[in-house]
Amino acid sequence: MNVHALVDDLETARAAVSGGATVLQLRLKDLSTPAVVDLGRPFRELCADSGVIFVVNDDVEAAIELDADGVHLGRDDEGIERVRAAELLLGLSAQTLADAMSADRRRPDYLGVGPVWATPTKPEAAPLGLEGLREICERVDAPVIAIGGIAAFNAARCLEAGAAGVAVVRSSVDIAAVCAAIERALI
User: Fold this and answer.
1) Is 27 labeled as catalytic in the residue annotation?
2) 7-17 pLDDT, tens per residue?
């Protein structure tokens, strides 16, 4: 099962981990590296204690200082060379087929693709839908993690479209139901 929980508070992180998240992505926007490191320590400890992969969003230096397992970079973020030098997992974002194919040429460990459905976290982004997700999954080599509007009732449909896993942001409190839906889809 491959469920990424994108979190910015420890309570949601704990709920996600206890619900079965396999990857915890710390998503603290617009903070300095020292602030991300300071706030990120308890998340790192939670992941270490529970065997969950710990990924830091956008900030390569914070990820290195926190001894994270990986970094997720957006389309405009820099630092791929630094991520590789530090031997961290590399996740890249893509919103379109062209984005995904371009990102895939950089040989990431996974691609975060979406939004699959409309989502309040990216209201300006046009949803891909399941057909758009399917096309990306068929055309890239990297495992695809579907994101955007993912919940327990539709997570399995993303796997059926070819995604290797799903990511949840606002529905992280529903993470146990998402995990159960994915588990049923894999049986």
Assistant:
1) yes
2) 999 988 998 88
DSSP 122: S
Q: Tally DSSP H helices, then E strands, for the chain.
A: 8, 8
**58-114 confidence digits (pLDDT tens):** 999 999 999 999 999 998 889 999 999 999 999 999 999 999 999 999 999 999 999
Q: Does residue 172 have an active-site annotation? A: no
Bridge partner residues of 89 (DSSP): 70
Catalytic choice (14, 27, 82, 134): 27
Task: Examine the residue annotation and report whether 93 is marked as an active-site residue of this protein.
Answer: yes
DSSP 26: E
Domain that holds residue 178: 3-186
Tens of pLDDT, residue by residue over 115-140, are 999 988 788 889 999 999 999 999 99
Residues 55/89, Cβ–Cβ less than 8 Å? yes
Count of domains observed in the chain:
1
Q: Which among 185, 184, 181, 172 is positioned nearest to 21, based on CA atoms?
A: 172
Using DSSP, state whether 97 is helix, strand or coil.
helix
**Catalytic residue, candidates 44, 93, 157, 172:** 93
Look up the CATH number of the domain holding residue 168. Answer: 3.20.20.70
> Which position among 122, 134, 170, 171 bears the catalytic label?
122
